[in-house]
Amino acid sequence: MGLIDKLFGKRVCIDSSPIIYFIEKHLKYHGVLHLLFNEINAGNIDAITSTISLLEVLVLPFKTDNKFLSEKYCKILLHSKGFSVHEVTNEISELAARLRAKYDIRTPDAILIATGIHYDAGAFLTNDSTLKKVIETKVLVLDDFSK
Q1: CB of 87 closer than 8 Å to CB of 77
Q2: What's the predicted TM-score (pTM) here?
Q3: What's the pLDDT at 147?
Q4: Are 132 and 139 in contact (CB under 8 A)?
Q5: What confidence tens digit (pLDDT) does each residue in 11-32 have?
């Protein structure tokens, strides 16, 4: 079963790395991510992320003064149909702290996963296979779906 089949008609929380791979057209992942973002734009998959992803994806464009790339990230994350970015609330912070304590994961990962859980995402898409140990949500690793 492919990634689109697993996510069709559902909500998915997307980690920063798949967003970066899509925008910057990473050769290994662009095919599957292009299909995913087409389905998101068509309204067949509801995608969410955290403002943490916005922070993470903008670092390199700001560091290299690449205004075109930073605007592209903002357009996709903040103005796309079917994609929403959520702020870190007190509830998300508490849940993220619980996830960090239980699994010893990094703060940005804990916040992103907690955002997905808080907003009822059925899955969390990442490319970090170490996050599969989190059982509170279905963790999907991009490498498992790319050729």
Answers
A1: no
A2: 0.95
A3: 66
A4: yes
A5: 999 999 999 999 999 999 999 9
Number of H helices, E strands in the chain: 7, 5
Confirm if 113 and 124 have CB atoms less than 8 A apart. yes
Write out the two tokens for 88: 């870190």
Q: Residue 105 and residue 141: Cα distance in Å, rounded?
A: 16
Which tokens go with 15?
A: 């980690």
Domain ranges of the chain: 3-144
- Where do we find the tokens 């790339």? 69
CATH code of the region 3-144: 3.40.50.1010
Strand segments, DSSP code E, in the chain are: 11-14, 46-50, 83-86, 123-126, 138-141
Alpha-carbon gap, residue 34 to 127, rounded angstroms: 16
Residue-by-residue DSSP string for 5-25? HHHTTSEEEE-HHHHHHHHTT
